[in-house]
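Need a sequence for this fold. Nothing fancy.
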């Protein structure tokens, strides 16, 4: 670890205030980021983390307060001043152009890649950085971004921001950088962050996965309702005290193995063994079935084919009996021009209609109910969906599926970006809904969530290689099956 800290912070925010209409997103934030540190930034959904990132990145000019880079006041210099101060940012909503190649996206981010042979240089740089950060990745850098999975897009965007063309990055901001990465890719990234700060760089790491914050940060800042409430070295925190500082408490886990009678429930999905698979796929009424394994090994494909199939293997024959929570919210989840309420109520318009028209009172009541249940932070459910923070948008997608009468809910890693307090509330809702007879098929990249399932199928290379039940469901067994194809 580099202890020779610079006298001037790489970035200093003083008294920063930002308001969006009636919502005060930042309410007098002070923040220093020094060379050689990985500063962890945590807080509930809507606490103001992405807003302070946008201010530091120069994309948003604060209504009050100042930002300086290396002791030099940015004075409204925007993105150019941030860039000159060595600031790079990997956004929560990925910002690559899907119709351009990875090489061309690298060029867009690095204006220094000009002149004869820039493509070759860009290709060499991005390939080398991808291999450095994510060893053994199989990304073709000559292909377009649109052909990549969401995890691969996240990997490319991260690698692009660590590249050095004319100048080395001084601060790399990572806003929920592992939201689409599985555990092993996330660990590769965290190892890279540790190496980068040990060599004198700085990182601002935002995550709702407290394990990676605690294992990677040198110092942690906790935000709540637009304010910094605690700043302390990582050694002064435990997972419990960190959650408490965010205004939540860790609830006791109830493992699925304690449930009885699950094996006797009727089958609602029963698919034969696919070629190459060791197991068929089945789900019973009231069961929470997890899909695990390394990301991109067929879990999302399984969910999509389940959703599309509705064949004779399915008991529910009507499409409204199956709900789907999309994993890529900006691509497949939100209707960006609609209000929060309309994004929620579209899930089950039939239940809200009277005399062939939507009953607005019923729609409002539905919105109020789910706003309270999942703590959607907004002053008004009629506001545009894009006025919500990322985690709050995700809650709306979740509420859309759960507010329908669907007997089966398919979930493609639906908790990404959701804060720990809300996650725990949603887990409790899932459990009680399952007990009331709903079936969930849940792909998750978070091991804690996989461990909440009744039964888990582990995927590898597009096929099911293991089935784990009750007490067999553990990180050790899932990892063993993910890598070797056999449960330990
Ligand atoms: N463009 C906008 N218009 C209106 N309100 C906004 C806008 N952007 C952010 N907000 C509001 O500002 C507050 C802070 O949002 P921000 O995105 O910074 O939260 P966050 O801590 O990053 O949350 P998350 O963990 O969900 O990503 C929220 O109440 C959000 O609804």
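Here you go.
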């Amino acid at each position: 670890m580099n202890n020779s800290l610079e006298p001037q912070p790489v970035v200093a925010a003083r008294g920063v205030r930002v308001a969006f209409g009636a919502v005060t997103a930042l309410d007098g934030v002070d923040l220093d980021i020094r060379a050689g540190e990985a500063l962890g930034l945590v807080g509930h959904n809507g606490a103001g983390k992405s807003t302070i990132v946008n201010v530091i990145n120069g994309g948003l000019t604060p209504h009050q307060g100042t930002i300086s880079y290396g002791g030099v006041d940015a004075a409204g210099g925007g993105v150019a001043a941030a860039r000159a101060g060595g600031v790079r940012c990997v956004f929560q909503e990925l910002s690559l152009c899907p119709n351009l190649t990875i090489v061309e996206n690298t060029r867009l981010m690095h204006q220094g890649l000009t002149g004869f042979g820039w493509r070759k240089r860009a290709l060499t740089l991005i390939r080398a950085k991808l291999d450095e950060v994510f060893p053994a990745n199989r990304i073709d850098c000559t292909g377009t971004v649109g052909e990549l999975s969401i995890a691969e897009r996240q990997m490319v965007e991260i690698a692009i921001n660590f590249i050095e063309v004319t100048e080395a990055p001084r601060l790399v901001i990572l806003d929920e950088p592992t939201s689409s990465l599985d555990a092993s890719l996330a660990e590769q990234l965290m190892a890279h962050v540790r190496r980068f700060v040990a060599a004198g760089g700085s990182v601002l790491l935002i995550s709702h996965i407290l394990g990676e914050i605690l294992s990677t940060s040198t110092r942690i800042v906790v935000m709540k309702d637009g304010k910094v409430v605690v700043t302390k070295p990582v050694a002064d925190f435990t997972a419990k005290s960190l959650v408490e500082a965010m205004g939540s408490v860790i609830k006791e886990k109830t493992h699925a193995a304690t449930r009885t009678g699950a094996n006797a429930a009727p089958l609602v999905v029963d698919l034969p063994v696919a070629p190459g698979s060791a197991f068929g796929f089945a789900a019973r009424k009231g069961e929470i079935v997890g899909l695990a394994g390394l990301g991109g090994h067929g879990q999302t494909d399984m969910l999509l084919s389940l959703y599309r199939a509705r064949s004779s293997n399915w008991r529910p024959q009507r499409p409204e009996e199956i709900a789907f929570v999309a994993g890529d919210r900006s691509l497949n989840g939100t209707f960006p021009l609609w209000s929060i309420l309309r994004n929620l109520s579209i899930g089950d318009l039939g239940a809200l209609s009277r005399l062939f028209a939507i009953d607005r009172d019923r729609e409002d009541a539905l919105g109020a109910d789910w706003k309270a249940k999942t703590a959607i932070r907004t002053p008004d459910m009629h506001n545009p969906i894009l006025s919500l923070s990322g985690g709050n948008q995700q809650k709306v997608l979740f509420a859309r599926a759960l507010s329908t009468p669907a007997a089966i809910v398919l979930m493609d890693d639906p908790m990404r970006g959701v804060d720990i307090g809300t996650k725990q509330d949603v887990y409790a809702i899932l459990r009680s809904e399952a007990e009331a007879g709903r079936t969930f098929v849940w792909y998750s990249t978070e091991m804690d969530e996989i461990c909440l399932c009744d039964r888990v199928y582990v995927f590898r290379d597009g096929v099911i290689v293991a089935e784990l039940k009750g007490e067999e469901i553990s990180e050790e067994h899932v990892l063993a099956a993910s890598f070797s194809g056999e449960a330990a």
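For context: The two ends are 36 Å apart (CA to CA).
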